[in-house]
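ok so I'm stuck.
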Amino acid sequence: MRIALAADHGGYQLKEELKKHLAATGMQFLDFGTDTEASCDYPDYGKLAARAVAEADADFGVVICKSGVGMSIVANKVKGVRCGTCHTTTDAELARRHNHANVLSLAANKVSPQLAAQILNAFVTTEPEGGRHKRRVDKITRLEL
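replied:
not stuck anymore, here's the structure
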């Protein structure tokens, strides 16, 4: 499994902690930056991780900023990406199960590194459900330009 990671300056520290978790669990990752806590523009990094998922260079993406909202908006602009901001493992499970999300957005000011690792684990191990959920996801996909 390969995870595309990206963060702005507000999410940099959490991204670095998640890299340690991924390495410890044997998951591969692609780090699209940023590489410092210097102020930067989150769209520059979020789009790279989202494109990696959309182009099948990564199985999942994780984008991080202070609130998780900005990075989620960026990721959702990329065709083929369904990104949800998750604050709990239940959020992550539902994002995968019901919305077939393939990119996880995390709020660095709301989740600890330990919780972020748990959320990520729940996200990547939960399978999408079919039935009414697939029908709804298909409707979302038809909205893409």
